[in-house]
Each structure stands twice: as structure tokens, then as C-alpha cells.
Amino acid sequence: MMKVGEMSELSAEKPLRVSLGSEKILIFLVNGAPVATAARCPHAHGPLHQGELCGTVLTCPWHGWSFDLVTGECEEDPDLLLQRYDVKVDGNDILVSQVPA
Ligand code: FES
């Protein structure tokens, strides 16, 4: 696992945008816990950091498709999955698996 940030940097309003090797990922604060996802929407690569988060559901700004950040499932297309990464908190450090979950 790789350190990508600190808990003190997270806010419920907007995700943290960080690099994970050559990938860009987002760290959301969901129900008080960090959730790591791909930065681009699996539909047509929309910028998910500009999406709207309501509870555990993130709505993509480009076409309004919704993704559950806990499961990765897409409401509009059950075959589409938002890529997520395992996260561990160690003290204030946020550690993320370099391999998608
Ligand atoms: S690019 Fe995200 S819904 Fe189309």
C-alpha cells in the first residue's frame, strides 16, 4: 500500500485528487471514512472530482450518471463499475492499494 495523503486533508465537500503511481485517483470522505476511486468516470471519462456527492452516491457532472462509492455500481448501467481501491488508515496517514479492488 502507498501513502497518498492524510486524514486531516480530507473534507466532505470535495475529494482529494492524488497520484497513485501513474494513475490519478480521488479520495472521498464517505460517512467519516476514506474511499478511493478512479478519477475518471467509467462512462466517458468525465472528471469525477467535479461530481456531486449525496450520501454514498456520486453523480458525474457530464451526463449525470450515478455511482455508489461503496459498491462502485452504476445506477444507469449495471454492467459499468467505478474502479475503487482498498484503503487503510494508519494514524493520520491514508494508504491505498496500488491494485484496484
Ligand atoms: S462521463 Fe460520466 S456520466 Fe458520462
UniProtKB/TrEMBL annotation:
Name residues in a coiled coil: none
The record ties this protein, via InterPro entries, to: Rieske_2Fe-2S, Rieske_2Fe-2S_sf
Highest taxon in the source lineage: Bacteria
GO terms of molecular function: 2 iron, 2 sulfur cluster binding; metal ion binding
Q: Which cofactor does it need?
A: [2Fe-2S] cluster
Q: Which family does it belong to?
A: Belongs to the bacterial ring-hydroxylating dioxygenase ferredoxin component family.
| Keyword check for Metal-binding | yes
Q: What is the protein name for this chain?
A: Rieske domain-containing protein
- Quick check: keyword Iron in the entry? yes
Q: Domain named Rieske: which ranges?
A: 2-96
* CDD domains tied to this protein: Rieske
Q: Which UniProt keywords apply?
A: 2Fe-2S, Iron, Iron-sulfur, Metal-binding
